Backbone:
């Protein structure tokens, strides 16, 4: 029998660990009068670590959930600018919170990654600490009492061992399993599942957030028409017909029009989207205007968008109809109708000439425009009757030979329908496409912009809309034109067809040829003959899709040599005949007379430019009285989280359950006084020393081969100790009958006791 060990000895049984005890005899002799002891200790640090983890995890998830719906410090990512309160916050600079949100999101993602990395290590650490407390008690029922093998499973962190878990599933529960192992396994599964579910449900999207409001002046239809209707402003506005005539001279069907909008993507909606002009500029032209969806004029350039703002702008669109009429259909009393526009040109000679009557019935001193923001529609009519004759200068010159016109009598009528109102400019909310024409932008159901629209425009005063003419129209063409120009100069808000007619057929036009460059060259000497001297208005807009010339003498320009002799007669006849929509047989295949379709498109383009000139006068002459404001904010891209509702609920439940369990387990582990800090290798080495005869240092490929592990108890209790200096010092015992108590002293290693 081996010698009974001295109970005051602080060493482990030497027979099972070191093989001999002679080396310790001197130390035992020196310490025989003192037995090192200490009380059990708590481990509060585990709670602190669990709390820190909980703070990181809750912060990252809570911030993600909040940022999914709104930024920190603001009501929403895209403030409702229709709300007075949110608009005030936006104007006061609440957008600064988006910088804070971006920094918080970056910190949140870092914390989320950190929590994901720490979840498994923290869970294992807490479970290992709590396992010590679990093994310090002995269950009242024997089937709950852990064996030494079950304790070793906890020491080996079996909750993270797939092989061990497979053994338990395969029927090894009685041998390996314990209640604590199940709890630790479930806790690890919950903790490990949080990060994958976050990766599955949490995504990030880019949205536009406010930066700074920008503004510019925008013509207000109601203000501008009201201002122009006041007679006190009649002399403030110069006659813009000359400027319009200049634009009609230079305009062509291939020029990009930066104010020609459409209800769609402009060029991409046309049947001629292969046009080189369309492809290069992205803007529509007059040539493809008949083929695009709902073309209209608007002041902002095509493609302009207001971003986060909902704003409205005036728009005007036109429909032109050309009809050939009988001579009897020409208004007979137009010359004497009050307020009607009537112009008569006549120049007949022995070899030929022309007679042209132009009429716009109705009271032209009354503007068709109404001072309103609501939708308005009106029509204008233009009647033209012409007689063209040409006998030639000698007998060999047959009628019509080498002429750009066919002598005869022609009459036609042009009807221009104009529709004006407001439309919603492209913004992020409406898909960045222009909205439809609104019946009433102020009170209609379409308008939901609220406070942001009150910044855009104010209601104008209700002035009287009457117009004034000065002087009657006389029979003398020269006097009539002078009086007409003076009379209509006071009509600021002209209809687009009236505006176009004044530019094409009144003073300075090619029907009034005596006041053109052609007359000057006609009177000049031989040295001034030859070369292009002028371009008649609207001629380039009468071209067809093939862009062929429409006249031999005036397209693409008027040659100085054509002004000599009776050339002026031919020039006027050539010009007015272009509007007859008659086919002319030419000897040249590069000349094609304009068709009714081309004439309609030309008048529509002219109306577009007429309205553009009229609107620009509104902002030029009195921008403070006639303009509102156009506000926009394109915002900047910002990454924000996106989590479906189901994902928020599921991950919140998992995270809450995990944190409650880990905090509860850490409190359990920290509150229980323990004999060792963790159930680690050092703890198992000390447990093995309690049965050195059962576990000598021998070869073993697997612990499953050692049956003693299933027979020995696995809990730590207390056994009878020694009594020194009136103090009872207990011994730790594997399978001890008495539970460990925090206030008792237990024998410890030398140097391990607290002072």
Residues:
């Amino acid at each position: 029998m081996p010698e009974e060990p001295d109970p005051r000895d602080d060493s482990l049984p030497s027979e099972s660990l070191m093989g001999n005890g002679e080396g310790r005899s001197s130390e035992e002799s020196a310490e025989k009068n003192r037995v090192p002891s200490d009380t059990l200790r708590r481990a509060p640090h585990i709670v602190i670590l669990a709390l820190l983890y909980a703070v990181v995890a809750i912060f990252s998830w809570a911030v993600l959930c909040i940022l999914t719906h709104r930024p920190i410090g603001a009501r929403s990512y895209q403030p409702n600018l229709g709300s007075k309160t949110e608009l005030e916050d936006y104007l006061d600079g609440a957008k600064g919170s988006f910088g804070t949100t971006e920094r918080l999101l970056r910190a949140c993602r870092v914390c989320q990654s950190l929590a994901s990395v720490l979840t498994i290590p923290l869970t294992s650490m807490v479970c290992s600490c709590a396992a010590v407390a679990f093994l310090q008690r002995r269950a009242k029922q024997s089937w709950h009492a852990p064996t030494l093998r079950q304790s070793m499973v906890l020491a080996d962190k079996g909750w993270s061992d797939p092989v061990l878990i497979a053994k338990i599933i395969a029927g090894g529960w009685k041998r390996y399993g314990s209640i604590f192992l199940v709890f630790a396994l479930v806790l690890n599964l919950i903790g490990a599942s949080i990060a994958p579910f976050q990766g599955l449900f949490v995504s990030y999207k880019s949205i536009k957030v406010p930066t700074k409001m920008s503004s510019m002046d925008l013509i207000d239809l109601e203000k501008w028409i009201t201002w122009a209707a006041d007679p006190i402003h009649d002399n403030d506005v110069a006659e813009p017909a000359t400027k319009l005539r200049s634009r009609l001279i230079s305009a062509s069907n291939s020029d990009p029009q930066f104010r020609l909008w459409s209800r769609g993507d402009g060029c991409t909606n046309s049947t001629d989207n292969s046009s080189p002009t369309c492809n290069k500029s992205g803007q529509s032209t007059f040539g493809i205007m008949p083929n695009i969806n709902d073309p209209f004029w608007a002041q902002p350039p095509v493609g302009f968008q207001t971003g986060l703002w909902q704003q409205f702008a005036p728009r005007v669109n036109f429909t032109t109809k050309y009809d050939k009429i009988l001579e009897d259909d020409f208004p007979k009393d137009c010359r004497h109708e009050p307020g009607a526009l009537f112009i008569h040109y006549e120049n007949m000679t022995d070899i030929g000439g022309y007679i042209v009557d132009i009429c716009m019935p109705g009271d032209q001193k009354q503007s068709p425009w109404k001072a309103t923001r609501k939708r308005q529609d009106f029509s204008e009519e233009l009647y033209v009757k012409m007689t063209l004759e040409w006998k030639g200068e000698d007998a060999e010159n047959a009628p019509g030979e080498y002429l750009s016109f066919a002598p005869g009598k022609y009459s036609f009528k042009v009807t221009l329908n104009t529709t004006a109102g407001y439309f919603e400019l492209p913004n992020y909310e409406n898909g960045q496409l222009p909205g439809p024409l609104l019946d009433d932008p102020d009170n209609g159901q379409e308008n939901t912009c609220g406070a942001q629209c009150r910044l855009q425009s104010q209601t104008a005063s209700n002035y009287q809309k009457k117009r004034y003419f000065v002087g009657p129209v006389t029979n003398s063409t020269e006097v009539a034109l002078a009086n007409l120009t003076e009379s209509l100069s006071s009509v600021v808000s002209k209809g687009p067809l009236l505006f176009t007619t004044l530019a094409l057929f009144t003073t300075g036009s090619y029907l009034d040829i005596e006041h053109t460059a052609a007359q000057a060259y006609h009177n000049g000497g031989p040295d001034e003959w030859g070369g292009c001297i002028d371009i008649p208005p609207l001629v380039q807009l009468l071209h067809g899709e093939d862009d062929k010339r429409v006249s031999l003498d005036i397209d693409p320009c008027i040659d100085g040599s054509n002004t000599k002799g009776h050339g002026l007669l031919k020039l006027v006849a050539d010009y007015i005949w272009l509007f007859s929509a008659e086919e002319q047989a030419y000897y040249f295949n590069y000349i094609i007379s304009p068709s009714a379709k081309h004439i309609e498109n030309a008048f529509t383009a002219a109306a577009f430019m007429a309205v553009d000139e009229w609107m620009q006068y509104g902002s030029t002459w009195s921008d403070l009285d006639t303009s509102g404001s156009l506000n926009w904010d394109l915002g900047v891209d910002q990454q924000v989280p996106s989590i479906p509702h189901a994902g928020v609920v599921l991950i919140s439940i998992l995270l809450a359950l995990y944190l409650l369990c880990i905090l509860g387990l850490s409190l359990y582990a920290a509150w229980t006084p323990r004999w060792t800090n963790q159930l680690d290798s050092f703890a198992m080495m000390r447990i093995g020393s309690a049965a050195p005869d059962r576990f000598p240092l021998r070869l073993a490929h697997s612990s499953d081969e050692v049956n003693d592990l299933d027979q020995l108890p696995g809990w730590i209790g207390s056994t009878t100790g020694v009594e020194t200096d009136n103090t009872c010092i207990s011994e730790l015992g594997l399978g001890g009958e008495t539970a460990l108590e925090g206030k008792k002293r237990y024998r410890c290693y030398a140097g391990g006791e607290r002072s």
Summary: Residues 216-507+600-631 form one domain. The chain has 21 helices and 18 strands. Residues 541 and 602 are 5 Å apart (CA to CA). The mean pLDDT is 78.
